Amino acid sequence: MDTSILGRLSNFNVGWPDAYGEAAQVRNLVYIYAESLERNYFDERLFPGLMPNLKALRAEALDFSELVQVPGSEFTIAGMVASQCGTPLFAVHHGNASSGLDTFMPGATCAGTVLRDSGFDLTFMQGASLTFSGKGNFYNTHGFQHIYGRENLATLGGDAATPLNAWGYYDDFLLDRAFERYQALSAAGQRFGLFLLTLDTHHYDGFLSPRCLREGVRYGDGRNSMLNAVACSDRLLGEFVRKIRAAPGGRDTVIVIASDHLAMNNPVYQQLETYPRKELFMVLDPSQPEGRQIDTPGTVLDAGVTVINLIGLDVSYGLGRDILRKPSLAAGRNDFDADLASWRDSILAFWGRRYLGREIMVDLSEQKIEFGGQWVRFPVLLQVTDRGEALPRFDFDAFEEFDAVDLFQELSNDDRFVWIDRCERIAVAWHTPRTDGYCAVWGRLDDAVHVHVIDASGKLSLSWRSSRWTQQDEVARVRARLAARRYPAQLSDGYEVRRYGLPDFLTKVDGLSHHEEGGRWSDADVAATVRLHFKEPLPTAFDVEIDAASYRGSVGAPVRIRAGNVERRMTFSELGSLNTAAFRHVSSTNVLEIIPAHPQRPIDIGESDDARRLGLFLRLVRIKEAPRGLATE
């Protein structure tokens, strides 16, 4: 292990530069993260004429042409952490789930801390939610005094009619607010840093800002929505930069336009992969107006350190280097990605150590737990080391409901753990007094496991004493039940669709989307029909009860229910209704099929950006065997 390098992770210095001459005067900074906007979008061989505005600005900029992405920088928050902290985003939880903690890598030195301590007034602005991926938490932890996102951006201007896309405010609205913020900061007379994140070029198809739609901005024949979004971003960013450069204080402001990460899967992804892919990183420095291409190899870890030195500070921290003066740390290394992986444990230490005592305080209203003076949101799985350190595992920002089961399966039988989740999830593997509310389970699989219903007392007292030795076949059963997501139930209990997992009498279900509060939608993109597969053949005579609601175009239309050779029809209201149909003389079958009528996409009718093909919202499906005397009807 290279201790001299790891020492850089926790040490930094800030002083005055010795090699910039006039640039020693500290300037203001505008740093723009352009969502997924990589260098290959500029390639005329791939996309002729796509980005004329940014291409013109690039000719006047310090254009770093050899900046590469590294592990731990491949998505937005990771790219921000890597560029600002000189450190890849490594975490024991999913990197996009960091809103679950009270702080964000508090042990790391990042650009915000350096600039704040140097007297800068710092603002971060974006159109998307600050909660997603913990971006608000990151900027709050690292020195930013003003943080704006979907939750509060409109307080700077706009009204309830301001349009939003699936992620938040369009870039035209963001950049208008950002320029107004720039003007206010510039007039205040204090040194400032304004950091922005665009979103219109987010995969898969991108979003076209209303201004570009009104002005007819499109690329080529306009059929490729992502390239239309890129063309729009080129125009909006070009206008924004030109306004800043023309404004009072413009000659005292360094402007950065950079990728947050390389583009992800989108309609032109294969074209982007035609040539080696590099991050966009260009710096418009008023003291160097001629512009030049910088071919020095570097990584995204070098971006923040290089920029902060350019604005007039002398900075060294993390794994970043000022590649205008020193080689990148990656230079000359045979496998820098492998080196980063080998330093993972040291990088994880930036999250701080969280140690469990004998008690955990639980706040049910805020859905968080507190121990050792720090809090973590739940549901959460804590892996507890021999030293009592709790490693939180969770994923709050996935679009589907968080499921700790897969994470639990990664634990060894002798790992100590604390799992706090909905009781219905815990009940899949361990008996709980009830299935509503929240429960906690802790212990070791190969030893005692304790289950507790969390009540309003707000306290969870942990005991790690063994009460018995768990047989290996019992451990195997627990793991199997978790893997299968099964809960005990009889056929007459029915399939409670709102409940986590499947009842024992079902082997699988086709055609349903993810769990939501109260049930699950049928999704014709998942499967054309909903099919419930039973372990045993259905009776030859039974009644089917279905509690469901229809989506828009399906309201009042007949939903076909089929079992073997028998088919019945039901209709459902938009709010939901309970219907019963009799099935008699049914041929042998293990499948009950539900065929929704006229599935629709909410996005197609302008209701929301949901692109699923919804038909029926199922709450309960129950099979009730017909009394013996009715079986021959």
What does this structure look like?
This protein has 633 residues and is an alpha+beta fold. It has three domains: 3-350, Alkaline Phosphatase, subunit A; 353-484, no CATH class; 491-630, Galactose-binding lectin (Jelly Rolls). Helices cover 21% and strands 26% of the residues. The strands form eight sheets. The protein has an eight-stranded mixed β-sheet, with helices on both faces. Helix 5 links the parallel strand 5 (121-126) and strand 6 (146-148). The protein is globular, with a radius of gyration of 28 Å. The N and C termini lie far apart (79 Å). The model is unreliable at 14-23 (pLDDT under 50).
At CATH level 2, the architecture of the largest domain is 3-Layer(aba) Sandwich
Strand content: 25-35%
Number of helical regions: 15
* First and last CA, distance: 79 Å
Tell me the quaternary state: single chain
> Within the CATH hierarchy, at the fold level, what is the topology of the largest domain?
Alkaline Phosphatase, subunit A
Low-pLDDT runs: 14-23
Q: Work out the helicity level.
A: 10-25%
Overall morphology = globular
Trace the largest sheet across and list its strands.
6-5-7-2-8-9-3-10
CATH top-level class of the largest domain: Alpha Beta
**The CATH H-level homologous superfamily of the largest domain:** Alkaline Phosphatase, subunit A
- DSSP strand tally: 34
- Secondary-structure-based class equals alpha+beta
Major sheet size, sense and barrel closure: 8 strands, mixed
